[in-house]
Design a protein that fits this description.
about 220 residues, alpha/beta, Arginase, Chain A, six-stranded parallel beta sheet
Length: about 220
């Protein structure tokens, strides 16, 4: 019996590359109008309180793969955006350029992880306002596109209030989806990489709700 036949020296089985919501990994050229275009933000540089948040996008991808968390709408994982943490002016211009390029395809940019981007999403896209998911719809501007910030820190805190996740999901499902031009899911714990799968799993469920809502609930082809 040969070594290969006996399994000695056989190549290990390659697992799929983890992605947000188990979505295909692609580039701008593959985006279509109405798609949800997810991208990670490798940002926490110079933030002594939040150091470690740069890895949160990776952990969400792992959680989605392990628990097979998927969206019901067409999605694409664009990888991580290019950032230049030691050059603030260059980073601001790069974020504007990349987010605007995604939006120009008709897709909805959904940024995951890091700190709140500099410049804000509203600045990137010329949105009417950047609003918090916790605000009631009556508090929002009466017209114009919106850039939405979803802060996960309340539900990931050690003493998180009961039913925090279900309340946040309900707020997301009440969003005026047709007015959302872009979303940033942020507020991750610096120790997300060390605290096990619970926090990443909660965040992945939030991302799933975001994609399903802003993507319009259309079935994937």
């Amino acid at each position: 019996m040969s070594a290969v036949a006996a399994g000695v020296g056989a190549m290990p089985r390659m697992l799929p590359v983890p992605s947000f919501l188990c979505a295909p990994i692609g580039d701008l050229e593959q985006l279509r109008a109405g798609d949800v275009a997810m991208a990670g933000l490798f940002l926490d540089h110079g933030d002594p309180v939040g150091y470690g948040r740069r890895f949160s996008a990776r952990q969400l991808r792992y959680a989605c793969a392990l628990e097979r968390i998927r969206a019901s709408v067409p999605c694409l994982d664009l990888g991580d955006l290019n950032v230049f943490p030691l050059e603030p002016a260059r980073q601001a211009a790069a974020l504007r350029r990349q987010v605007s390029a995604i939006a120009a395809t008709g897709a909805i940019p959904v940024l995951v992880g890091g700190r709140r981007p500099d410049p804000p999403l509203g600045d990137c896209l010329g949105c009417a306002a950047t609003v918090e998911a916790s605000r009631a719809p009556a508090d929002w501007p009466p017209s114009g596109p919106l850039a939405l910030v979803i802060d996960l820190s309340p539900i990931l805190a050690p003493m998180a209030p009961p039913r925090g996740l279900s309340r946040l999901l309900a707020a997301i499902r009440a969003l005026p989806a047709r007015r959302i031009a872009a979303v940033h899911v942020t507020g991750f714990k610096p120790g997300l990489d060390l605290d096990g799968r619970r926090e990443a799993s909660l965040a992945a469920r939030v991302l799933q709700a975001v994609a399903d809502q802003v993507g319009g609930g259309a079935a994937c082809p």
